[in-house]
From TrEMBL:
It is a multi-pass membrane protein. One of its GO terms (biological process) is transmembrane transport. The keyword Transport applies. Its main location: membrane. InterPro entries: MetI-like, MetI-like_sf. It is found in: Cell membrane. The chain crosses the membrane at residues 7-25, 76-107, 119-143, 155-175, 211-230, 258-283. This is ABC transporter permease subunit. The keyword Transport applies.
Length: 293
Protein backbone atom coordinates (compact mmCIF):
# COMPACT_ATOMS: atom_id res chain seq x y z
CA UNK A 1 0.00 0.00 0.00
CA UNK A 2 1.32 3.46 -0.88
CA UNK A 3 2.09 6.05 1.75
CA UNK A 4 -1.05 8.16 1.01
CA UNK A 5 -3.08 4.95 1.15
CA UNK A 6 -1.61 4.08 4.55
CA UNK A 7 -2.42 7.53 5.94
CA UNK A 8 -5.97 7.41 4.56
CA UNK A 9 -6.45 3.97 6.08
CA UNK A 10 -5.20 5.25 9.45
CA UNK A 11 -7.70 8.12 9.33
CA UNK A 12 -10.52 5.69 8.53
CA UNK A 13 -9.54 3.42 11.41
CA UNK A 14 -9.42 6.43 13.73
CA UNK A 15 -12.91 7.53 12.70
CA UNK A 16 -14.16 3.97 13.03
CA UNK A 17 -12.78 3.87 16.57
CA UNK A 18 -14.66 7.06 17.48
CA UNK A 19 -17.90 5.69 16.02
CA UNK A 20 -17.43 2.43 17.92
CA UNK A 21 -16.81 4.32 21.17
CA UNK A 22 -19.99 6.35 20.64
CA UNK A 23 -22.00 3.19 19.89
CA UNK A 24 -20.66 1.47 23.02
CA UNK A 25 -21.45 4.50 25.17
CA UNK A 26 -25.02 4.88 23.96
CA UNK A 27 -25.55 1.12 23.80
CA UNK A 28 -24.52 0.57 27.39
CA UNK A 29 -26.59 3.55 28.51
CA UNK A 30 -29.62 2.04 26.76
CA UNK A 31 -29.35 -1.50 28.14
CA UNK A 32 -27.20 -1.15 31.26
CA UNK A 33 -28.70 -1.07 34.75
CA UNK A 34 -29.28 2.32 36.32
CA UNK A 35 -27.34 1.26 39.42
CA UNK A 36 -24.37 0.04 37.38
CA UNK A 37 -22.78 -3.40 37.39
CA UNK A 38 -21.27 -4.70 40.58
CA UNK A 39 -19.14 -7.78 41.24
CA UNK A 40 -18.79 -9.01 44.81
CA UNK A 41 -19.88 -5.62 46.03
CA UNK A 42 -17.39 -3.74 43.83
CA UNK A 43 -18.62 -1.49 41.02
CA UNK A 44 -17.02 -2.53 37.72
CA UNK A 45 -19.28 -0.62 35.28
CA UNK A 46 -20.75 2.85 35.84
CA UNK A 47 -24.32 3.82 36.47
CA UNK A 48 -26.42 4.69 33.43
CA UNK A 49 -28.47 7.56 34.85
CA UNK A 50 -28.22 10.96 33.16
CA UNK A 51 -26.04 12.35 35.93
CA UNK A 52 -23.38 9.63 35.57
CA UNK A 53 -23.66 9.03 31.81
CA UNK A 54 -25.23 11.88 29.86
CA UNK A 55 -26.22 11.27 26.25
CA UNK A 56 -23.60 12.30 23.71
CA UNK A 57 -26.11 14.70 22.16
CA UNK A 58 -26.54 16.40 25.53
CA UNK A 59 -22.74 16.78 25.84
CA UNK A 60 -22.45 18.40 22.43
CA UNK A 61 -25.44 20.66 23.09
CA UNK A 62 -24.02 21.76 26.44
CA UNK A 63 -20.64 22.51 24.85
CA UNK A 64 -22.34 25.04 22.56
CA UNK A 65 -24.00 26.86 25.46
CA UNK A 66 -22.46 29.51 27.76
CA UNK A 67 -20.35 28.33 30.68
CA UNK A 68 -22.70 29.94 33.20
CA UNK A 69 -25.57 32.37 33.38
CA UNK A 70 -23.37 35.44 33.75
CA UNK A 71 -23.73 38.13 31.10
CA UNK A 72 -21.14 37.72 28.35
CA UNK A 73 -20.15 34.22 29.45
CA UNK A 74 -18.43 32.47 26.51
CA UNK A 75 -19.60 29.09 25.20
CA UNK A 76 -18.14 26.05 26.90
CA UNK A 77 -16.19 24.99 23.82
CA UNK A 78 -14.50 28.39 23.58
CA UNK A 79 -13.39 28.20 27.20
CA UNK A 80 -12.15 24.64 26.66
CA UNK A 81 -10.08 25.70 23.64
CA UNK A 82 -8.54 28.57 25.59
CA UNK A 83 -7.62 26.31 28.49
CA UNK A 84 -6.30 23.64 26.11
CA UNK A 85 -4.05 26.15 24.35
CA UNK A 86 -2.75 27.31 27.72
CA UNK A 87 -1.91 23.73 28.67
CA UNK A 88 -0.42 23.08 25.24
CA UNK A 89 2.01 25.98 25.66
CA UNK A 90 3.14 24.78 29.08
CA UNK A 91 3.41 21.19 27.87
CA UNK A 92 5.46 22.32 24.85
CA UNK A 93 7.99 23.98 27.15
CA UNK A 94 8.18 20.81 29.24
CA UNK A 95 8.44 18.61 26.14
CA UNK A 96 11.31 20.64 24.69
CA UNK A 97 13.19 20.68 28.00
CA UNK A 98 12.60 16.98 28.58
CA UNK A 99 13.60 16.08 25.02
CA UNK A 100 16.85 18.01 25.28
CA UNK A 101 17.72 16.41 28.62
CA UNK A 102 16.75 12.96 27.37
CA UNK A 103 18.80 13.28 24.19
CA UNK A 104 21.85 14.54 26.06
CA UNK A 105 21.58 11.58 28.45
CA UNK A 106 21.33 9.25 25.45
CA UNK A 107 24.49 10.77 23.98
CA UNK A 108 26.29 10.29 27.28
CA UNK A 109 25.18 6.67 27.60
CA UNK A 110 26.13 5.91 23.99
CA UNK A 111 29.56 7.50 24.38
CA UNK A 112 30.41 5.86 27.71
CA UNK A 113 29.31 2.30 28.40
CA UNK A 114 29.90 2.79 32.12
CA UNK A 115 27.48 5.74 32.01
CA UNK A 116 24.82 3.54 30.42
CA UNK A 117 25.21 0.94 33.17
CA UNK A 118 25.10 3.61 35.86
CA UNK A 119 22.40 5.94 34.53
CA UNK A 120 19.86 3.69 32.77
CA UNK A 121 18.63 1.90 35.93
CA UNK A 122 18.11 5.27 37.60
CA UNK A 123 16.15 6.50 34.60
CA UNK A 124 13.81 3.54 34.90
CA UNK A 125 13.54 3.99 38.67
CA UNK A 126 12.71 7.69 38.26
CA UNK A 127 9.45 6.85 36.52
CA UNK A 128 8.12 5.06 39.59
CA UNK A 129 7.88 8.30 41.60
CA UNK A 130 4.20 9.42 41.71
CA UNK A 131 3.58 12.91 40.35
CA UNK A 132 1.24 13.76 43.19
CA UNK A 133 4.20 13.42 45.56
CA UNK A 134 6.64 15.19 43.26
CA UNK A 135 4.52 18.28 42.54
CA UNK A 136 4.58 19.87 46.03
CA UNK A 137 8.35 19.45 46.22
CA UNK A 138 8.92 21.19 42.88
CA UNK A 139 6.54 24.01 43.81
CA UNK A 140 8.32 24.51 47.15
CA UNK A 141 11.78 24.52 45.56
CA UNK A 142 10.68 26.78 42.74
CA UNK A 143 9.16 29.29 45.13
CA UNK A 144 12.60 29.86 46.64
CA UNK A 145 14.18 30.82 43.30
CA UNK A 146 14.61 34.59 43.01
CA UNK A 147 17.28 35.98 40.66
CA UNK A 148 17.05 39.73 40.26
CA UNK A 149 13.73 40.58 38.63
CA UNK A 150 13.11 36.94 37.78
CA UNK A 151 10.81 34.97 40.04
CA UNK A 152 9.61 31.40 39.68
CA UNK A 153 6.04 31.20 38.41
CA UNK A 154 3.68 28.32 39.09
CA UNK A 155 3.43 27.38 35.41
CA UNK A 156 7.16 26.69 35.45
CA UNK A 157 6.61 24.01 38.07
CA UNK A 158 4.02 22.45 35.78
CA UNK A 159 6.49 22.54 32.88
CA UNK A 160 9.18 20.86 35.00
CA UNK A 161 6.80 18.04 35.90
CA UNK A 162 5.85 17.66 32.23
CA UNK A 163 9.53 17.46 31.27
CA UNK A 164 10.03 14.84 33.98
CA UNK A 165 7.65 12.53 32.16
CA UNK A 166 8.83 13.49 28.67
CA UNK A 167 12.57 12.89 29.05
CA UNK A 168 12.41 9.15 29.75
CA UNK A 169 10.99 7.88 26.41
CA UNK A 170 13.26 10.26 24.52
CA UNK A 171 16.34 9.06 26.40
CA UNK A 172 15.54 5.39 25.81
CA UNK A 173 14.48 5.84 22.18
CA UNK A 174 17.44 8.02 21.29
CA UNK A 175 19.86 5.58 22.95
CA UNK A 176 18.43 2.70 20.95
CA UNK A 177 18.66 4.74 17.78
CA UNK A 178 22.23 5.86 18.38
CA UNK A 179 23.23 2.25 18.94
CA UNK A 180 21.34 0.98 15.88
CA UNK A 181 23.98 1.32 13.09
CA UNK A 182 25.32 -1.99 11.86
CA UNK A 183 28.87 -2.99 12.73
CA UNK A 184 29.87 -2.92 9.07
CA UNK A 185 28.86 0.74 8.81
CA UNK A 186 30.81 1.60 11.93
CA UNK A 187 33.84 -0.20 10.55
CA UNK A 188 33.49 1.80 7.34
CA UNK A 189 33.59 5.05 9.29
CA UNK A 190 36.71 3.85 11.07
CA UNK A 191 38.40 3.11 7.75
CA UNK A 192 37.72 6.73 6.80
CA UNK A 193 39.43 7.72 10.07
CA UNK A 194 36.22 9.43 11.21
CA UNK A 195 36.17 10.34 14.88
CA UNK A 196 33.28 9.96 17.29
CA UNK A 197 31.76 13.34 16.51
CA UNK A 198 31.85 12.90 12.75
CA UNK A 199 30.46 9.38 13.09
CA UNK A 200 27.70 10.83 15.25
CA UNK A 201 26.74 13.43 12.65
CA UNK A 202 27.09 11.28 9.54
CA UNK A 203 25.89 7.90 10.81
CA UNK A 204 24.42 7.66 14.28
CA UNK A 205 22.09 10.68 14.17
CA UNK A 206 20.50 9.79 10.80
CA UNK A 207 20.16 6.17 11.93
CA UNK A 208 18.41 7.25 15.16
CA UNK A 209 15.55 9.11 13.44
CA UNK A 210 13.25 6.05 13.04
CA UNK A 211 13.58 5.43 16.78
CA UNK A 212 13.61 9.05 17.89
CA UNK A 213 10.37 10.16 16.22
CA UNK A 214 8.17 7.59 18.04
CA UNK A 215 10.00 8.44 21.27
CA UNK A 216 9.31 12.15 20.74
CA UNK A 217 5.65 11.35 20.04
CA UNK A 218 5.40 9.33 23.24
CA UNK A 219 7.22 12.09 25.11
CA UNK A 220 4.71 14.66 23.81
CA UNK A 221 1.78 12.56 25.01
CA UNK A 222 3.51 12.07 28.37
CA UNK A 223 4.08 15.83 28.65
CA UNK A 224 0.35 16.42 28.12
CA UNK A 225 -0.50 13.91 30.83
CA UNK A 226 2.08 15.44 33.16
CA UNK A 227 0.73 18.94 32.50
CA UNK A 228 -2.88 17.97 33.21
CA UNK A 229 -1.96 16.15 36.42
CA UNK A 230 0.46 18.86 37.54
CA UNK A 231 -2.14 21.60 37.07
CA UNK A 232 -4.34 19.78 39.55
CA UNK A 233 -1.50 19.03 41.99
CA UNK A 234 0.14 22.47 41.93
CA UNK A 235 -3.02 24.57 41.82
CA UNK A 236 -2.06 26.24 38.55
CA UNK A 237 -5.14 27.90 37.04
CA UNK A 238 -6.01 28.54 33.42
CA UNK A 239 -5.24 25.11 32.01
CA UNK A 240 -7.35 22.16 30.99
CA UNK A 241 -6.45 20.16 34.10
CA UNK A 242 -7.81 22.75 36.49
CA UNK A 243 -10.89 23.17 34.28
CA UNK A 244 -11.62 19.43 34.55
CA UNK A 245 -11.74 19.76 38.35
CA UNK A 246 -13.81 22.95 38.28
CA UNK A 247 -16.37 21.57 35.83
CA UNK A 248 -16.52 18.25 37.69
CA UNK A 249 -17.56 20.10 40.85
CA UNK A 250 -20.76 21.11 39.06
CA UNK A 251 -21.38 17.54 37.89
CA UNK A 252 -24.46 17.04 40.07
CA UNK A 253 -26.40 19.95 38.62
CA UNK A 254 -24.76 20.07 35.18
CA UNK A 255 -23.29 16.64 34.33
CA UNK A 256 -22.93 17.16 30.57
CA UNK A 257 -20.70 20.18 31.15
CA UNK A 258 -18.06 18.13 32.99
CA UNK A 259 -17.23 16.05 29.90
CA UNK A 260 -16.23 19.01 27.70
CA UNK A 261 -12.75 19.58 29.22
CA UNK A 262 -12.17 15.82 29.28
CA UNK A 263 -12.77 15.72 25.53
CA UNK A 264 -10.52 18.77 25.22
CA UNK A 265 -7.69 16.95 27.02
CA UNK A 266 -8.05 13.97 24.67
CA UNK A 267 -7.94 16.22 21.61
CA UNK A 268 -4.95 18.03 23.12
CA UNK A 269 -3.04 14.76 23.27
CA UNK A 270 -3.90 14.00 19.64
CA UNK A 271 -2.79 17.48 18.56
CA UNK A 272 0.55 17.11 20.33
CA UNK A 273 1.16 13.76 18.66
CA UNK A 274 0.19 15.28 15.30
CA UNK A 275 2.67 18.13 15.71
CA UNK A 276 5.45 15.65 16.35
CA UNK A 277 4.32 13.72 13.26
CA UNK A 278 4.97 16.88 11.24
CA UNK A 279 8.55 16.81 12.52
CA UNK A 280 8.72 13.21 11.34
CA UNK A 281 7.58 14.26 7.86
CA UNK A 282 10.40 16.80 7.70
CA UNK A 283 12.87 14.01 8.52
CA UNK A 284 11.22 11.25 6.49
CA UNK A 285 14.25 10.74 4.24
CA UNK A 286 16.06 9.33 7.28
CA UNK A 287 13.12 7.14 8.32
CA UNK A 288 14.22 3.77 7.05
CA UNK A 289 11.42 1.41 6.11
CA UNK A 290 12.97 -1.54 7.88
CA UNK A 291 13.09 0.32 11.20
CA UNK A 292 9.49 1.48 10.92
CA UNK A 293 8.14 -1.99 10.16
Amino acid sequence: MTRPGVRFSAVLWGLAGLVLLAVLWEGYKAVGPVTGVQFFGQSILPKTDDRSMPHLVDMVTRALQPVNSAVGSPPVWVSVIGAALNSLGVAAVGWVAGSVVGFLLALLMQRLRVAERAVLPWLILSQTVPLIALAPVIVAWGGKIQIGAFSWDRWMSVAVIASYLAFFPVAVGALRGLQSPDAIHLELMRTYNAGWFKTLLRLRLPASVPYLIPALRLGAASAIVGTVVAEVSTGYKGGIGRMIIEFAQSGTSDPAKAYAPIAGAVILGLVSAGLVALVGLALKRFNRQEAAS
